[in-house]
Amino acid sequence: MKKIAYFVVALLSLGLLLAACNPTSTNPTDGDGTTVPTVTTSPTVTTSPTVTTSPTVTTSPTVTTAPTETTAPTQTAAPTETTTPTQTAAPTSPSVDPQIAAELEAFEELFRWGGERNPYAYALGFEYASPEELNLYYFYDGGFEGEHEITDEEWEELKKQILGPTDGDGPYTDFFRLPVAKINDELQALFGISVADLVDSAFSGVFYLECSNSYCFLSGGMTSNPKMGSFLDLKHNDDGTVSLTYECMGDDMFVITLKPNGDSYLILSNVKVK
Question: In a 3-state reduction of DSSP, which class is residue 32?
Answer without folding.
Answer: coil
